[in-house]
Amino acid sequence: MGEPTGFAYVTGGGSGIGRASALALARQGLAVVVADRAEDDASTTVELIQRDGGQASHAVVDVTSTADLQRSISRGIELYGPLTAAVNSAGIQGDLAPVAECRESNWDAIIGVNLTGTFLSMQAELDAMLRHRAGSIVNVASNFGLVGQRGMPAYCASKHGVIGLSKSASLDYAVSNVRVNVVCPGPIGTPLLDSFVGADGAHLLDAIKQSVPMGRVGTADEVGNAIAWLASPAASYVTGAVLTVDGGYVVP
């Protein structure tokens, strides 16, 4: 792959869409800092990148901690040079309950990771990117950031918020050559979908597939490749975009 031309910072990079994004960005020639709360998962992603000839390191990061974010990005700059791209994919689903039954602690946890965590991650990433007036940030929202879903008030609110936050930032920093875009995945075969399906298993999975015009769930690689394109120079005139990767779920 040759020497990296900077590095990508990926939150939630230890599994699912985050891991797929990290691998796709490494294939573009970037070194990758894999940031995740789960050290073993992050280390596995690093091993996969290195096995493919890329450069990577991991960092144990809680996205609700500004200190963790700043420390890990600073270390990436020391190792690899400028921060070129960032993918904010860390997220949780939380418990399912309608609005009247959603516990405040559940609300706080989901908003804290999914929305506030994205906000804090962007602050640390922008601080690094604005130093050299270049960069690309891709935030991972959800198809439920575009439509509602029963029993998921906090999750839907957090992902709608990620889209609004991203659009605002795209306008703030366009003049500084820092692009901010959003990807909205639909049902994707990841640990998050597994936790959503839960014990109901095959029956619920079949229902999910039937809700998608393409009739199937997507793969993490399909989302990771879309993210890598948005983060790359190939999308140099794209900012403020909301790209759905959902098999047509939100089209109807």
TrEMBL record:
<dbReference type="Pfam" id="PF13561">
    <property type="entry name" value="adh_short_C2"/>
</dbReference>
<dbReference type="InterPro" id="IPR002347">
    <property type="entry name" value="SDR_fam"/>
</dbReference>
<comment type="similarity">
    <text>Belongs to the short-chain dehydrogenases/reductases (SDR) family.</text>
</comment>
<dbReference type="InterPro" id="IPR036291">
    <property type="entry name" value="NAD(P)-bd_dom_sf"/>
</dbReference>
<keyword id="KW-0560">Oxidoreductase</keyword>
<protein>
    <submittedName>
        <fullName>SDR family oxidoreductase</fullName>
    </submittedName>
</protein>
<dbReference type="InterPro" id="IPR020904">
    <property type="entry name" value="Sc_DH/Rdtase_CS"/>
</dbReference>
